[in-house]
Design goal:
The chain is α+β, with helices and mostly antiparallel strands and 401 residues long. Among the domains are: 100 residues, conserved putative lor/sdh protein from methanococcus maripaludis s2 fold (Beta Barrel), CATH 2.40.420.20; 74 residues; 82 residues, Beta Barrel (Elongation Factor Tu (Ef-tu), domain 3), CATH 2.40.30.170. Helix 2 packs antiparallel against helix 3. The longest helix is centred in the first third of the chain and has 49 residues. The chain is elongated and about 180 Å long. The termini are far apart. The N terminus and C terminus are likely disordered.
């Protein structure tokens, strides 16, 4: 009986273990679901926390600004001119066609008047000149003989030893020979010019600017071999529209900026054409600038600036801070923390600066970077940009060709 009582107790232990395992699995699943839900909720909360619920239009936009400052503006006209030498010669043959024998100079060489620059192979011209010279000598001898014979015949007319007709014939032959002698001398002078044309000399003191031909080249009349320039005085030449005829009167002070060297020069208009070009309707004028040191390169470009008005007060800004439409400039001014659109009259511009009417007061904070995305009344977060450079006292309002 004791054994039978113990058996049910032993059999009940496995049943209790199975029931505990069955309860653990649902609890584990429930715990995992709870953890997943918590993680999902945390992720949702984090995502929603990053959402900006403030509209972009209401948020301040980052911009940079510069302070407008007072300046002096003087209107001027600018013309594009050219630096030319005082005189220039294109040296080459004028009468003969021949091969180049020697070229003795190169660009940059300093030459004196009558200095030999080049020679041509003119053996044919020299031979022709000698032949013409010999013919002239022969004709001269014949003419002298005929003249003496005619004189003797005229002396025999009084004695009746010769007829008047015979004496007149001899006199006419002598005159014909004299005329032929003069013609031959003219031919000899022409051949002498051809021979002298074979030696090319500098027409004045100056410098060699170009060398176009080398020994061995065949040249014809009018062909340039070298060119010589005189830079002791440089002529700055320009052309102004006919409406500026009075602005380029002789004696007017002008400033010239040489683009090749960056030099700023000052001079006065020396001469002005009395009539406009019929094709372009422009008036030619010239400015003489002494250059004893030969520092200015000729054939280069120079900007000619001529003042045409009185200095007036203006407000200066960098050109990139405004949008120019016709005669007005559109810009944004910071008013507190708000951008305000302004339209101001343009006085003029030069380089990277623009000069405006005093409707825009000096000291105004004008937006530079970021203004393309702005509208009137937008809130801004402003940061000051680098300061402007030194203002130019005289600037141009127009650019002339």
């Amino acid at each position: 009986m004791a054994d039978e009582a113990e058996r049910p107790a032993v059999a009940a232990t496995p049943a209790l273990s199975v029931g505990a395992r069955g309860l653990t699995i649902p609890l584990a699943i429930a715990g995992g679901v709870t953890v997943l839900l918590a993680l999902g909720g945390a992720m949702v909360w984090r995502a929603e926390a990053r959402v900006n619920e403030v509209s972009l239009a209401a948020s301040a936009k980052p911009v940079t600004f510069v302070e407008a400052r007072a300046a002096t503006f003087r209107p001027a006209h600018v013309y594009v001119g050219t630096l030319q030498p005082w005189v220039e010669a294109r040296v080459g043959p004028q009468f003969v066609s021949a091969y180049v024998d020697t070229v003795l100079v190169r660009p940059g060489a300093v030459v004196k008047r009558s200095e030999i620059l080049a020679t041509l192979d003119c053996r044919n011209a020299s031979a022709t000149n000698q032949a013409v010279s010999m013919q002239a000598r022969a004709i001269d001898a014949q003419q002298k003989a005929m003249a003496d014979e005619a004189a003797r015949l005229r002396s025999l007319l009084d004695g009746g030893f010769v007829s008047p007709n015979e004496a007149e014939q001899k006199t006419a032959q002598s005159a014909a020979q004299a005329a032929e002698l003069l013609s031959q001398k003219a031919r000899m002078m022409n051949s002498a010019l051809e021979v002298s044309d074979c030696v090319l000399r500098a027409p004045f003191d100056g410098e060699v600017a170009t060398r176009s031909e080398d020994p061995g080249a065949f040249v014809r009349p009018g062909t340039q071999i070298v060119s010589v320039v005189d830079r002791s005085i440089v002529r700055v030449v320009g052309d102004a529209p006919e409406i500026d005829f009075g602005a380029v009167a002789p004696g007017t002070v002008a400033r010239v900026r040489v683009l090749a060297t960056g030099a700023d020069l000052k001079g006065t208009i020396a001469r002005r054409a009395p009539a406009a070009d019929p094709g372009t309707r422009t008036v030619h004028f010239e400015i003489d600038i002494p250059d004893p040191g030969h520092a200015l390169p000729v054939g280069t470009t120079g900007e000619i600036s001529i003042n045409v008005g009185e200095p007036v007060a203006a407000t200066e800004l960098p050109l990139y801070a405004v949008s120019i439409r016709g005669e007005n400039a559109v810009l944004f001014v910071i008013d507190g923390d708000v951008a305000r659109s302004r339209t101001v009259l343009v006085r003029g511009e030069v380089g990277g600066d623009v000069f405006l009417a005093l409707d825009l007061m000096p000291g105004s904070r004008v937006i530079t970077d970021g203004r393309a995305l702005l509208e009137d009344g937008d809130r801004v977060f402003a940061k000051e940009a680098p300061a402007l450079g030194a203002p130019a006292p005289d600037v141009s309002t127009k650019s002339r060709p």
